[in-house]
Amino acid sequence: MSRGTRIASTAGAVFVVAAVVIAVGAVAEPEQRPAPPRVYSSCLAADTEPVPAGGDPCDGR
Question: What are the Cα distances from residue 22, in Å, to 11, 13, 31, 34?
């Protein structure tokens, strides 16, 4: 095998191995889940006083 043929086959083998590693890495990554929805409240009384069942924490009482 000539030197040029050996270099070409080594470069080809390195390219194939690199392609396989990239393909396996892309498949192995888990899918990202979307972030849970955020809940915003403008009423701070909900954090300081208990609210009866069915009550409105923001009614101002």
Answer: 16, 14, 16, 25
Q: Provide the pLDDT confidence category of residue 10 given band limits of 50, 70 and 90.
A: very high
**Where do the domains of the chain lie?**
3-47
pTM value?
A: 0.41
Average pLDDT in the 9-33 region? Answer: 82
Query: For the chain, percent helix, then strand, then coil, each to nearest 5?
Result: 50, 0, 50
Helices and strands of the chain, counted as H and E runs = 1, 0
